[in-house]
Task: inverse folding
């Protein structure tokens, strides 16, 4: 029987139940549109606070003979085919994507960089904002979309395809590391997190590259867990497209390889040296076009990757790591995601501790412990590697989020014992509720700032369209280029550029803009050329725009 003899434990359970109820009520209020009272529409971590109180109040709850309420509901849920659960999650993801399109119909800053490149391949339009350090994979997919339909909607449809691909990969690997039903829970928890859902509607490469990296992780585990497996030979066909999709995966891959070496040991990998050599050769062969391009553009085969790393907006060395530690795990994955990821960290730590106490891999857990140690170590090393080499953003660390979520769902199922079905049904239900709540947080909170900014940049950009060659100089060059159809550069880039005389140059200065010169610096840029100045009022956060056109 559950020991409720002490008042302290009884009070702890009451507190845990109250906090859990508050978490549910909070999500319902956010869904109903009453999240404005929260700072930035960000819900409080009631559920994360409830877990330690619950564990303190009932440490032996998993072994009790008492039954939990809602057993009939759980039994009904278990009768639903797994494929229907997977399809349901995909439908929810698609619906959220569609709803959020209305919240942010304008293409954003980072999106516009890749959109401009894709459009340049379709129509020869300028690729405003593009840099040598940018990967070409996403524009290549965008090229196909724009060929079918030249619109922002076509590019955002690419985003949906990438989201569904990564959710599908997440289900695939989780189903093989846990069970198919637990894998559905993993996907729901992932989708409910603010860090992930925030980027679902956007045309970016982070979510798509995450799916490819997850396949790499899966193939590594399969190579060690299946006798005479040739899974390593499939890795080049995932790594190469992943690299062209996002150069930043190099840090992820390095961390994953180090984690695999630590978790499985040099001896285990030396037995597969032929497959490793073949895979390495195929990867090198696939990267030959990139190396040729890098040499031509920078003079070095590694010049593009080095350039990409140098573009990191770091305030100081390691500020990305400080950022990840400050948002981990709650602001990264949401209230429920924080609980699940914390359980995943504990599960990985326990597995690593068990393995450190034994010499034979056949003792206590074997392949399961090695895999958990690998996934946990890879998650930590990826966060550290990216935190030290770049500024921090939640979209950069989706792979650790997924891996720890898989470990966490499995850990919750094992810890809850015979109540695992009930516990995971509750987790899935709260995750589904959180998806709707997080969608409101994204639409009403996270997207509000970018939308207000677009209310300034978009109408001004459309006013600047010209029939001939034109150049817009602004601190918002990618989106200004997309909506004006002109080439666009920053003021710093304009100072170094040689602009042909037949190009119409237009300087844009917003009332509350960024990266723009003062009056004296602007006069220096204009020089002796004739100028025409006009003001364009906007309803956005940047205020009115002053446009100086050079005649």
Result:
């Amino acid at each position: 029987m559950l020991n409720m003899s002490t008042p302290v434990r009884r009070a702890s359970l009451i507190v845990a139940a109250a906090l859990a109820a508050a978490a549910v009520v909070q999500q319902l209020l956010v869904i109903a549109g009453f999240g404005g009272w929260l700072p930035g529409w960000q819900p409080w971590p009631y559920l994360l606070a409830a877990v330690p109180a619950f564990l303190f109040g009932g440490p032996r709850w998993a072994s009790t003979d008492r039954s939990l309420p809602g057993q009939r509901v759980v039994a009904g849920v278990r009768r639903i085919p797994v494929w229907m659960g997977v399809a349901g999650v995909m439908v929810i993801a698609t619906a959220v994507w569609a709803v959020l399109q209305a919240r942010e119909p304008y293409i954003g800053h980072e999106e516009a960089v890749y959109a401009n490149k894709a459009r340049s391949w379709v129509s020869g339009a300028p690729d405003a904002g593009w840099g040598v350090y940018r990967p070409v994979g996403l524009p290549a997919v965008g090229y196909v979309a724009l060929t079918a339909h030249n619109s922002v909607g076509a590019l955002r449809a690419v985003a949906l395809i990438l989201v569904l691909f990564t959710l599908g990969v997440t289900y695939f690997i989780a189903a093989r590391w846990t069970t198919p039903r637990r894998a559905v829970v993993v996907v729901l928890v992932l989708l409910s997190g603010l860090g992930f859902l925030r980027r679902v509607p956007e045309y970016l490469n982070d979510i798509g590259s995450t799916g490819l990296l997850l396949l790499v992780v899966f193939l590594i585990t399969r190579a060690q867990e299946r006798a005479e497996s040739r899974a390593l030979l499939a890795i080049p066909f995932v790594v190469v497209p992943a690299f062209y999709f996002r150069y930043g995966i190099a840090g992820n891959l390095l961390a994953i390889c180090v984690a695999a070496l630590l978790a499985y040991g040099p001896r285990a990998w030396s037995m597969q040296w032929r497959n490793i050599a073949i895979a390495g050769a195929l990867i090198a062969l696939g990267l030959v076009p990139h190396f040729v391009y890098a040499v031509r553009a920078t003079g070095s085969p590694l010049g593009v990757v080095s350039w990409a790393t140098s573009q990191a907006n770091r305030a100081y060395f390691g500020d990305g790591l400080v950022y990840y530690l400050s948002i981990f795990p709650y602001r990264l994955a949401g209230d429920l995601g924080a609980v699940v990821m914390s359980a995943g960290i504990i599960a990985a730590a326990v597995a690593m501790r068990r393995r450190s106490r034994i010499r034979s891999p056949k003792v206590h857990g074997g392949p399961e412990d090695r895999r958990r140690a690998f996934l946990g170590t890879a998650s930590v090393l990826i966060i550290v590697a990216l935190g030290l080499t770049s500024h921090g953003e939640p979209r950069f660390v989706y792979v650790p989020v997924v891996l720890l979520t898989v470990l966490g769902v499995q850990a919750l199922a094992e810890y809850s014992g015979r109540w695992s079905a009930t516990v995971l049904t509750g987790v899935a239900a709260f995750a589904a509720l959180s998806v709707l709540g997080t969608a409101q947080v994204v639409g009403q909170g996270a997207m509000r700032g970018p939308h207000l900014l677009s209310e300034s940049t978009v109408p001004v950009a459309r006013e600047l369209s010209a029939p001939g060659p034109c150049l817009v100089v602004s601190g918002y060059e990618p989106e200004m280029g997309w909506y004006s159809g002109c080439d666009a550069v920053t003021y710093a880039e304009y100072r170094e550029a040689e602009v042909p005389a037949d190009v119409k140059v237009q300087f844009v200065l917003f009332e509350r803009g960024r990266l723009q010169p003062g009056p004296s610096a602007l006069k220096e840029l204009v020089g002796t050329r004739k100028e025409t100045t006009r003001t364009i009022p906007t309803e956005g956060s940047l205020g009115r725009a002053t446009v100086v056109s050079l005649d």
